[in-house]
Write the structure tokens for this entry.
Amino acid sequence: MFRAIKAAFLLRWPIKGLGDVPINVLALACLGVLGFGNPGFWLAGVGLETLYLATLSSNRRFVNWVDAQEKVFEDSTVSQKLHALLDQLAPENRRSMDQLNQRCGRIETLWRSSDELQLGSNEQALRDLQWVYLKLLIARQHLLNAESEADAAKVENDMHSLERELSDPKLTPATRESKMATLAILKKRHENISRRKQSLDEIASDLARIEAQVDLVLENATLDGKPSSVAVNLDLASMALDSGMFGSSAADVADVDAAYSKPPATRNRA
């Protein structure tokens, strides 16, 4: 209701030579000015505005129009964020994403050529698989970029060197404390590197699993010519990755996730 009232209050109407004019706001401004000469205009303005807002906000066609305008805006926003995420992919990752999208496009073409009418849930599931695949590519790219800055072998060598130095009984307390602090930092870096390698292994496995799932759906669509159930909840190991795995893309990923996680009745296609 509030969205409809807000839209009615700010409603713009195209007027030749002036463009889109906020007619309601303009009318209120005129009545406000006239009210300084005759306060009755203020009372009339309140009454007319209340009637106007109540009439439009309760009109089903107007409410549907407001909902449609919001969906168009949200679809456009999600689409822009998706394109921005795709543009950030390295060439090899972009090729992988394009290949998966092409296979999904082929599946949808086969589905639409059949007599099957109920395609919505399967198309939604296929779209979700593409989104998960894109997130995995983004996470892998971020992890690989971070790993290039960390030399695992050098970190291990430095740790071993410090451990040998700390075994020297001649070290002064201040020196020992400094070296122990440095060793703690190196151990933390080593832990991060090890966890990053585990995450990369999980992502590689999950990417292959999604590709195999899409290939299976394509084979079924080719053979049967109609939609079969598409599994999205693949219990992917890498789904435990937090938003930090997406680097500078984390905000856009979160926004698209929020749009795609809406209930089926209100989710938008992107």
